[in-house]
Amino acid sequence: MHPTRTLAIVQTAPRQLEPRDLPVPDLTDDTALLRIEACGICGSDVEQWDGTLRTPLPAIPGHEPLGVIEAIGDTAAQRWGVDVGDRVAVETMLSCRFCDACLAGSYHLCHTRQIYSYIPLEQGHGLWGAYSEFMVLDGRSIVHKVDPALPPETAVMFNPLGAGFRWAVEIPQTGPGDTVLILGPGQRGLASVLACREAGAEKIFVTGLAADAKKLALARQFGADAAIDVENENVRERVRELTDGRGADVVVDVSAYALSPVTEALDCVRPGGTVVLAGVKGFKPVPDFVSDKIVLKEITLRGAIGVTSSGYRSAIKLLEGRRHPVEKMHTHEFGLRNAELAIRTLAREVPGEGSIHSCLIPGKD
Q1: Domain for residue 311, yes or no?
Q2: Is residue 293 part of a domain?
Q3: pLDDT, tens digit, for every residue of 246-284?
Q4: Which domain holds residue 235?
Q5: Are 95 and 18 within one domain?
Q6: Among 23-32, 173-182, 219-228, 281-290, which stretch is predicted with the lowest mean pLDDT?
Q7: pTM exceeds cut of 0.85
Q8: Same domain, yes or no, for 225 and 203?
């Protein structure tokens, strides 16, 4: 008999979270109940919380769930190859599997996709987010088994690491011998360093602010060949110097809100190179964006949203391989009732606190 109630943190308005005691529904044959061990916090959590994403409310946030199967229907168990007691990482996207995008393999671009955390409380059972003790796994979910011996605060890094593999390796097809410039040293920038190193990139450079000194130092530990302080160095000149005037084969922008990295990317990539834009800018126009640079340099410009199964599998393989000190990226963990503090810490709204990777741990309150 699974639990009948759960503590969940509900967002009711921009910058407003409240704890609620909610019912746990009966499961159907193709669903499961997940006991949350950890939920990662990233920039999207900040953007949902402050209203930038304009997601429907009220809703339970949390799109990076790691947990243990508490109960499961027979069809779901057979489809996913898991059973009660298995630890799983849950993909964010829910897709139909039948539209043109899904049938072409781009299920993350499904015409009717839904995303855990952004589905309102009023829809169905309402337990669509991981800021909770328990959440319901929809029949459209994709889950991946994870080694139960990994600490939850480390295992939950499957999501940012998956983004690193998809955005910095899979989309630009980074491989041996490539030079990669990563704009932004947050958790996804650091994950991109690890992913590019795994892919065999020859040189990796990372940019950041003066306030990012610890993150840039960690980037060097993870294998970056150079860390560039954009407030005290000219990024374009430094990249030219580091590449003997050639430019980077791949430039990946994972910075949030900052607009200058978009134009810097066009200047720093080599002719015929690839630029991947993965950092959202709050729907703001980019000043001094000159499209002729894309034309004259024949730049391949790609957007990146979300992570797909191959990226998650690569991330979990890296975590389970234990060859990299990924735990150094983890800086904070909070109980559910401190979810707002977790978000504000990541958003640099808490003086004296600098978060790289943080997560919520139910029961830590």
Answers
A1: no
A2: yes
A3: 999 999 999 988 999 999 999 999 999 999 999 988 889
A4: 160-303
A5: yes
A6: 281-290
A7: yes
A8: yes
pLDDT digits (tens, 9 = 90+) for 22-60: 999 999 999 999 999 999 999 899 999 999 889 999 999
* Confidence at residue 364, expressed as pLDDT on a 0 to 100 scale: 82
Q: Give the pLDDT confidence score for residue 354 in this predicted structure.
A: 84
Number of domains in the chain: 2
Structure tokens at 363: 């029961």
Cis peptide before 58 (omega within 30 of 0): yes
**Residue 140 shares a structural domain with residue 256:** no
Q: Is 320 inside any structural domain?
A: no
Instruction: Report pLDDT for 251.
Output: 98
Q: Tell me: do 174 and 287 sit in the same domain.
A: yes
Residue 86: give its domain's CATH number.
3.90.180.10
